[in-house]
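User:
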Amino acid sequence: MSIRIPDPDTYASLPQEMFVIGTDDSLAEEIARPSTTYWHDVWQRFRKDKLAVIGLVVIAIMTILCIVMPMVSPYTYDGADYLNMNAGPSWAHPCGTDQMGRDQFIRIMYGARISLTIGFVAAAINFAIGVIYGGLAGYLGGRVDMVLMRIVDILSSLPSLLYIVLIMLIFGSNMGSVILALCFTSWIGTARVVRSEVMHLKHSEYVLAGRLAGATTWHLLVHHLVPNAMGPIIVSTAFLIPGAIFSEAFLSFLGIGIQAPQASWGSLANAAIPVMQMYPHLMLFPVIAICITMFSFNFIGDGLRDALDPRLKK
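Assistant: Predicted structure:
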């Protein structure tokens, strides 16, 4: 087989500009893409979701109001005014007053403190338990994984309302017992997500390199596996928050959650049941607060799910 070498004279007649590469700086600036991090790309995609941004702004405003308003308001959540009972909305009382003349707006803001605190704390505890439990089950595998997941199956098969009522009867109706009851099995969903992601990632090259370098199981989980699986974990945790808030409101509505004189959104709705037909505003405003919070967190969760999906990266 012979190789034909082009004649140099063939290229002599061609313009020299054809052989100059990269001399036009304007074209280089148009082609070059600024270097960004993964989380910067996530934030840019999240910002494009208008509903998610609106939900984030609503939760931020509600958090600020529930912290500031009870501090600057002349009313307190347990201050009774028997001369102004069951008053309708007014400038002095934007959400009216309840059966004891207490300002309903301040009680809703105080209830937001309790409900949001329970939601965030329960989600944080469930996140920690789910990551550790699911990470160990997925990474160790074999018999350890089988035993741990059978425990999860047993816990998930128990009626949740049964052990919640038992915990309330043993520890009383307070914020601590509500958080304990919500954390008893709510971490199961996060644990399953983490287990699935870790089982998928543990055969990656960087994990094998870490093993050869002598890295411990805990080091691999904390520094390599969990950070690379953080997207689905964050989405799962984001949906835990509204679930915990709604569960607390449901328990308080049934009368086994937060008790008077403390106020949560569920207990406010429960207290309004006897007079709901005559004074519907006592039920309306707590329910609106619950609905707005649920929608906002769900919008945030949907936005995070889309933003953290690497298949959507452009």
